[in-house]
Design goal:
By secondary structure, the protein is an alpha/beta fold. It is 30% helix and 20% strand.
Length: 166
């Protein structure tokens, strides 16, 4: 029995590529369905904890594009949260799998990606402890906002461990 650590992924839809179908400029649907998809895997793990011999403690890791997913499930109020954006048809109101099972985790690791940039938007004093990192040579520029993210977390007295990868 031990700790389950889920490596969060992003909502990937190659059929939505703008160059082929004109829907999105990238292949991810995280902003529109990431919260629902990623809270579902936490509820799945919790509802099958006995089957997988888990002790009920779940950590989540999101790197690069998947960092958004991790940040969203680290919010202990994610069950009542909304997606980052809504489709033009409005929010998805279909029932989620494993209803009644908590979608909160115990700790999160976030590195680079939209999740890192959106920490001030989605992480608050009720969020779970975080481990975050940034690399100086990150080609997408996540090093530059890192000091501001750390300042925000320190200002709200959040339990965080930071790794500055020189």
């Amino acid at each position: 029995s031990g700790y389950a650590f889920a490596n969060a992924e992003h909502c990937y839809n190659p059929l939505a590529l703008k160059r082929y179908y004109g829907y999105f400029d990238q292949f991810t649907l995280d902003d529109w369905n990431g919260l629902a998809a990623n809270t579902a895997y936490v509820r799945y793990l919790k509802s099958h904890a006995d089957q997988y011999n888990l002790n009920g403690k779940i950590g989540v890791m999101g790197i690069s594009k998947a960092s958004y997913s991790a940040v969203r499930v680290c919010d202990t109020e994610n069950a009542t949260a909304k997606e980052h954006f809504e489709f033009s048809a409005g929010p998805n109101t279909k029932p989620q799998p494993w209803p009644g099972v908590s979608s909160t985790v115990d700790v999160g690791y976030v590195a680079a990606g939209n999740g890192s940039k959106r920490i001030p938007q989605y992480i608050n004093t009720k969020s779970v402890p975080l481990v975050i990192s940034a690399g100086r040579n990150d080609q997408y520029g996540y090093w530059e906002p890192f000091p501001g993210t750390i300042k925000y977390l320190n200002d709200i007295d959040h339990n965080v461990l930071t790794f500055w990868m020189q």
